[in-house]
Amino acid sequence: MYIEVDIKNRITNYSLFLSFFAVYFLIAAIVDPIPCPKWISSIDNKIPFIWWMIIPYYSYYILLIIPPFLIHDLNKIKKLTKVLIETAIFCYIIYILWPISSYDVLKDVTPNILSFLHNFITFEFLHQNALPSMHVSVTTTIGLVISVYQNKYRFLMISMILGIFLATFLIKQHYLIDSITGLMLGYIGFLRYKYLTKI
Q1: What are the boundaries of each domain within the chain?
Q2: Average pLDDT over residues 60-67
């Protein structure tokens, strides 16, 4: 009974962060995109579209929901939730101030056998990207935190972080600069978590 209550509390607390994703779509619906600076898109024009990288991209959604099941201390989940919400707020502020159009990379997407997966994450009203990439920043923080408490999953977590990082720009969902800054922010989030938990 205690175990059931404990995991329910962890899931409930962590859900506060998951609910923040609704804000992303709200911003996208009310903020118009602006043209992407040429110095950014000129870099991505040299990067190929690799259609099968949509598979590691989707592993993000697995990584997103597992913290309450792998981190067994409610206080640690609360600290992680706090850090992830702070990360989301930072990403949203930049998103509002600089909602660059993702058209310059989306135009490179070509039909393939996994196009249906790509269509699930591309919406008509969502032609702007966040810098830094929240996909990458959240992935990095969560993966590194889980690695601390579940060492047996360390290689898997690092692989998922790297795979999702590469996927975000190789499937043309983000510009390279979005992904790099997301990686940096994710690591800062991990350092912030370490500071809060004194690990």
Answers
A1: 2-197
A2: 95
